Amino acid sequence: MKHFLFGLLLFFILPWQINAAELSDAEMYKQRMELYKKTEAAAQVPWYYIAAIDQFERSIRFVRKDLPKPDSITGYYLSEQQWIGPTNPNQNDQNPLTIGIFGGMGLDGDGDGKSDKNNHEDLLYTLAHYISKFGVNDNAFRLALWEYYHRDQSVNAIMTNVKLYRQFDRIDLNEKAFPILKGHHYSYNSTWGARRGWGGRRIHEGTDIFANYGAPVQAVAYGVVELKGWNKFGGWRIGIRDVNNTYHYYAHLNGFAKDVKIGDIVQPGTIIGSVGSSGYGPPGTAGKFPPHLHFGMYKDNGKNEFSFDPYPHLKRWERMGKK
Fold it and tell me: Nearest 5°: phi and psi at 141?
């Protein structure tokens, strides 16, 4: 009993100092959400703005070599120089006053008199304070993002997170679905990186899933529709970005689901179109190849976007759908 009470006491005293690797996914999301809500109360900034940036930074740190991998509950990153100030002679400075004098961003978020970059409350309070200087509506938030990142794609990716978190009122949005609706016949192999000749020498940036004309195509993840329309290569196609800053590309469609449009929020299982053979020509061209869905995945790292092989993910989602 004594050990239980001692452990409970530690939990409440140091709730944000636990390494995420020691937590289950459910516990991690719970503590992360509690931290966002606590920061919201302290800084009067909506939690979903804080969470949206935190998640974006987490996603790019996983794929960037010039940034440390996230190893804690929070994903937001500031370098030591950003935190303490570029001309600060004290590399271990945790005094909010001197940090401010030397132009550092670091603030005290938990009221202990220290500005500690490794303290999750201090870190996210510093982020929230930056946001609050611009205002707490979407237009002001966009301006804050532009001033910070100076990149449209980063702003758009973070606003995608805002829309999803605000819509579903939770951050554990990692469920997935296979793109072809269950009950329809299909086949596929690993085709990412194969040579393609139409339209010039290029590689195949996706996996082809062969199915019958009209087989329903569904969103694989929670996301926001970023692109819809015709492309001479992909025909009728849709692009959707998720909270992990992964862009999902569905091409060669026979048509779109009724009323689907750019800016729509989707979730795993949302029907977005149907299998076709459109593409390789001007709008309306079809039938130059067997009906199939071209499914591609792209990752944005905060600087540029690149294609990666979706085949292992498709196999995993397929297995999950059969359980």
Answer: -65, -40
pTM: 0.90
- Distance of alpha carbon 21 from alpha carbon 56, whole angstroms: 19
pLDDT at 18 over 80: no
CATH for 186-322?
2.70.70.10
Establish how many alpha carbons lie within 13 A of residue 60's alpha carbon, considering only the half-sphere containing its beta carbon.
20
Q: For the chain, state the CA radius of gyration.
A: 23
Domain ranges in the chain are 2-78+117-168, 186-322
Outline where the chain has alpha helix (H). Answer: 2-13, 25-43, 47-61, 80-84, 96-101, 120-132, 138-149, 152-168, 311-322
- CA geometry: angle at 49 spanning 155 and 228, to 5°? 45
Among 261, 46, 235, 8, residue whose Cα is nearest residue 136 = 46
Instruction: Render pLDDT for 99-125 as a digit per residue (tens, 0 to 9).
Output: 999 999 999 999 999 999 999 999 999
Helix, strand or coil for residue 238?
strand
Q: 256 has which bridge partners?
A: 273
